[in-house]
Amino acid sequence: MTSLNLNSIMIGTAQPEPLARFYENVFGRPADMAEGGWYMWQAGSCSLSIGEHSEVKGQAKEPARIMLNLETKQVKEEFERLKNLSATIIKEPYEMGGGWIATLADPDGNFVQLMTPWEQE
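Request: output the structure for the sequence above.
Response:
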């Protein structure tokens, strides 16, 4: 059986600079790599990359298809912070299974969820 490791997630965009500024504010730090219109933030063993893609135009047509799930114990506080970064509110914080979830959208309309860390029992 082959074992695969999720290495990175790439968001293709027609507007890499504004999207990179948004995620710089989300992560609270500049990109770990910024070169030739591409930006990358390392997050654990996975990275998030943003760059211009010739096949991407305008807003995400199906923004719920893939969601970035960002774990935090402060879902409500981070929701307010991201809301103040001009993220679009999709769903206010709500409780589910003993944890909290909130959904917002980035400048391209891609969904970003804030989630309480999942703890195995």
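The longest helix spans residues 16-27.
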